[in-house]
Model the fold of this input.
Amino acid sequence: MLQTFNEKNRDLLININGELIHRDQAGISPFDSAVQGGDAVWEGLRLYDGRIFKLTEHLDRLASSAKALAFAEIPTHDAIIAEIKRTLAANSMTDGVHIRLTLTRGVKITSGMDPRLNQAGPTLIVLAEHKAPVYRDAVGATGLSLVTSSIRRFAPDAMDPKIHHCNLIQSIMAKIEANVAGADDAVMLDPRGFLAETNATHVFIVTNTPKGPIVETSRCVACPEGITRETVLELCAANGIACAERDISMTEVYRADECFTTGTMGELAPVAMVDGRGIGTGDRPVTTGLSDLFRDLTSREGTRVV
Done:
């Protein structure tokens, strides 16, 4: 699945530390920590009819990641929201927009990994693009095809996945494997061999039981604390749908009645096949129902920025 270029994005204005520049204009110093070592944190946001869904939760996670990486300075929520508003206004954006926030440790006085070389404060990048949920047009009702990657997610004692950092080489290596296999994305396991997530999203399975369906996802041991993931669990609890977080083996994924992925970039996307095994019978009442509940929620809730 390859995303295509959207002509609406040809003349985007990007916000770098408050300066609005054309997307083709150089704006990041080669001494910036993001360039030097991927030393940065990020968040993906989605704009629905002038509102950003779960904005506070995303900014809380951004600040949490920056704190874990010992950033000397972290912009306030209000300061970041002000720059988001300026960026959206400059690009006349109101709906169908994905925003990528990047906060780097900032510009170094000379090359090197030592954070003491960062003496200019952090760099905030606000990149807003016209972008529909990435899987919607590609898979529609057909569903994603996934393949298990040989690349494992780190355990917390190696690199805690609760730090939403910009060094995405693990994910990129897994995505390369998916591309070679002709799949849409790659399933990634934790060091023990249990399901962690895909290279870009969290994974849920649905199992039908005599007492009704149960929706399950992996624990946040080798995957980040997903905002959309948490929203789905909240929707299950609020609507009487049994749900659980536990260790899940790939055998349990193969024999699931339904499977879907979650993420800000792609919302809820059904999965049709994993490692050549068809998932369920193709009927997806729970996935469809949760997707409808999610769309209803995003149409009503969010922080007004436009």
Notes: The mean pLDDT is 96. The chain has two domains: 7-130, 136-300. The radius of gyration is 20 Å. The domain at 7-130 is CATH 3.30.470.10 (D-amino Acid Aminotransferase; Chain A, domain 1).
